From TrEMBL, chains A, B:
Its cofactor is FAD. This is FAD-linked oxidase C-terminal domain-containing protein. Residues 56-236 form the FAD-binding PCMH-type domain. It comes from the Bacteria. Pfam families: FAD-oxidase_C, FAD_binding_4. Keywords: FAD, Flavoprotein, Oxidoreductase. PANTHER family: GLYCOLATE OXIDASE SUBUNIT GLCD. PROSITE patterns: FAD_PCMH (PS51387). InterPro entries: FAD-bd_oxidored_4_C, FAD-bd_PCMH, FAD-bd_PCMH-like_sf, FAD-bd_PCMH_sub2, FAD-linked_Oxase-like_C, FAD-linked_OxidoTrans_Type4, Oxid_FAD_bind_N, Vanillyl_alc_oxidase_C-sub2. It comes from Streptomyces caledonius.
Length: 484, 484
């Protein structure tokens, strides 16, 4: 049982919630929740305080709820509404923008226990599930029916469908198969006042009324809580083959991406790794990567004839100036190629371990028009140089979506300041090239200020109006995306 | 010059607009519009009174405006806002739900003259254009760059991109390539008070803020006027091959659709024609169609190896019970197959001409889960029989989206009543099967009541709130989609 007699004071006016008597809150919640759905121990409160975004503001929740079904979610939201307590929905907390971060004194509402796949319908190529289903588990289940749910965020083995919907998650194969939003047909929701609502449809097509489904996707739990989803599926993807091409210059790699696009190819992965990252992966022992390269492309094809399409793209890479190309001819060789992409994270970890102090990685997420990639990466290298930082840039070249990652010693205040400065400069450079401040990670708390720079005043006003329309008391994940 | 001294009285309280002095309105509009952008002659007023939806309510506009650019659109909306005059945006008026129908005393705002393609960007596979560009013209222009804009509504040779966006238009190849909404990256808009706003982005991916772009797509000109669009393109489609398969029963045709889906095929067209329509097309002289068939499927494949995929689907049709299959082996033979689909409209026209009185066609648009198609078509046949009507059903079987078409003598009040009754019964049957009241034609004025039956109360309340948020004075296409 809790010892804290009151709900904590909010950290800032922006997140201000009327304080409520903690005992009343707990009594009201527990009236319709089983004991295992309600936690107030300090371990649970700390564990649910934040997602995976470093340096994002986060508070300590008053209580963590883990409802088992939609009725319990409705009860939690109704209670919060009546008592004026803010609610922060959470999935697996793998997000990278702070959108799932607790605010002081809030109710955390984790949908992790609502993890049932309710129906797989191969005839209509759709699946109905609860929000807490892990993305990989969903894919495993539909694979048994010869189907696939394509969106593949990096955290797909841990993240949940509800979190994917809340953030509008992307991934590597989006370049061919689209993002989470493209697969959400309908949603079961609980509104901030506890009412249930259904959006969308079970049909492949439909234009009945304004598209509330798409409004909820990517809204980061600020408009409603997803308690069920109807998702479109696709036939299982054919076996893929991959190649790895290294270039003496960024321009050459950019030319290869442009040539692949211009020739009408749609690879199932088109990933770019910059000089620093290529070097780190080579240093980490990936046998196929030659050190000293300015840029590496990883290209995957899962067409009906991947060998022939891969060969065509290999020639385009060579014509663009690639000085080292390795094209897989078997699935096993393809796995080795793709391994270079998977090794980025451990390679950066190994690099970080060589730094003194408290090494940290600051992962950016900016998308620019595909044609601006070489210029953008060049600018990032210049920003790294000027700020005396190591910035590793990799990302989804086919989508123009990059993740420049600043690895630095967070215990050094001066280096911290330079890292923050570089982060701001990268964002500004991306916007100046016609880009967006977030390709797939979201706004959360990290990028609220950038959102106000990206949107025009009328759009920002309407975004705030939307928040007020759905959540007039500003209790559902307040302070994320836009201020009400 | 106009002789009518005042703006007409609105037809109903729902559409009530404050009357304004007509001379003042005209003076204000003409202050910043060239003479050719302002018409008040009775010919223009009549021509712009309605779209292609029969039996939908429509009024007579006070004035028709044909602005040349966004500044003129903003001037028209600002003027209307200040004087309290309703505005009805129009594209090519090929819509089938009455969404572009004038209301008495309104300003019609036609975007037909804003027909410039502003930029084709092959490197980023996108095009920027004005709303009045005809869909076919856009496709012809991008084809020169080896690209295509897939959405292909039946009216694609006449309809405009702005109208496609306003209605969320579909088409035949949506089953593989998606609908209009899937191609809209960003929009330039004018809000009801005349302010400009930009939504979306130029990048392939992006999740910055709530998705206002998707909210506008399909909103039928009730939230804002589209003055520019950034659309995604795809590589040109490979050459396609088509087959035609006829079945002794609806169930057999449904089984074929299910088998094609289950085998993982994604045809670029999967069209179904019922018994009555097959007969009408055969009677109209299409040589490949045998009379007396319960259902005809037209299947098109544009994969890398269409002959092989078509052959596999041919076998599946035969296994499902097809008693007549004709698979094309050349593009010319494919055109003959597809011609059976194109002949539906003239064949129904020829049938209508055999009716006495004033023959009319009432085109429905209902989508059901794909697996419910045979049951739905059987129900439609039963409804036709019971109401003593000829109903021709055809549609996009791969999407579960059907267009049952009642052909009847509108001059016979009793037959009219039976046609209306059949229409209502078809809609109710579609919803009962888990369907939606509109797959691709929209709500307009025709289906407002059905929308309120399809949506739950909370959703309807939010839809109305959205309308009020964007258009607090209820002046932009009032009475369409939802009542404010």
């Amino acid at each position: 049982m809790p010892t804290d007699p009151t709900v904590s004071t909010p950290t800032s006016a922006a997140h201000a919630a009327p304080t409520a008597d903690f005992t009343v809150l707990l009594d009201r919640l527990s009236a319709r929740l089983p004991a295992d759905a309600l936690r107030t121990d300090s371990e649970a409160l700390a564990a649910h305080a934040r997602d995976a975004a470093p340096f994002s503001e986060a508070g300590i929740p008053a209580v963590v709820t883990l409802p088992h079904n939609a009725e319990q979610v409705a009860h939690i939201l109704r209670t919060a509404y009546e008592l004026g307590v803010p609610v922060v929905p959470q999935g697996a907390r793998t997000g990278l923008a702070g959108a799932a971060n607790a605010i002081d004194g809030c109710i955390v509402l984790s949908t992790a226990r609502m993890d049932q796949i309710l129906e797989i319908d191969p005839a209509n190529r759709l699946v109905r599930c609860e929000p807490g289903v892990i993305t990989k588990h969903l894919n495993d289940a539909v694979a048994a029916h010869g189907l696939t749910y394509p969106p593949d965020p990096a955290s797909w083995e841990r993240c949940t469908i509800g979190g994917n919907i809340a953030t509008g998650a992307g991934g590597i194969c989006c370049v061919k198969y689209g993002v989470t939003a493209d697969y959400v047909l309908g949603l079961d929701l609980v509104l901030p006042d506890g009412r249930r609502m259904r959006t969308g449809r079970d049909t492949a097509k439909g234009v009945a009324g304004y598209d509330l489904t798409r409004l909820i996707v990517g809204s980061e739990g600020t408009l409603a809580v997803v308690v069920g989803a109807t998702l479109a599926l696709r036939p299982a993807r054919p076996a893929a083959l991959a190649l790895l091409a290294q270039f003496p210059s960024l321009t050459a790699a950019g030319d290869a991406v442009a040539a692949i696009t211009a020739a009408g190819h749609t690879p199932s992965a088109l990933e770019l790794i910059d000089r620093a990252t290529s070097q780190a992966v080579a240093d980490h022992g990936h046998g196929l990567l030659r050190p000293g390269s300015a840029a590496t492309l990883i290209v995957e094809s899962d067409t009906a004839d991947p060998a022939s399409d891969l060969h065509a793209m290999e020639l385009l890479c060579k014509e663009a100036g690639a000085d080292h190309v390795h094209a897989a001819s078997t699935p096993e060789e393809s796995r080795q190629v793709i391994e270079a992409r998977r090794l980025v994270s451990p390679a950066l970890g190994a690099f970080a371990a060589t730094l003194g102090g408290k090494p940290t990685a600051f992962i950016e997420d900016v998308a620019v028009p595909r044609s601006e990639l070489p210029k953008f990466i060049g600018t990032i290298e210049e920003i790294a140089h000027r700020n005396r930082l190591r910035i590793f840039t990799l990302g989804h070249a086919g989508d123009g979506n990059l993740h420049p990652t600043v690895v630095f010693d967070e215990s050094d205040p001066e280096e911290f300041r330079r890292a923050e400065n570089a982060y701001d400069e990268i964002m500004a450079a991306g916007l100046a090239l016609g880009g967006t401040s977030t390709g797939e990670h979201g706004i959360g708390t990290l990028k609220r200020d950038w959102l106000t720079r990206e949107l025009d005043p009328a759009s920002l006003e309407l975004q705030r109006g939307l928040k007020r329309l759905f959540d007039p008391r500003n209790l559902l994940n307040p302070g994320k995306v836009v201020e009400a």
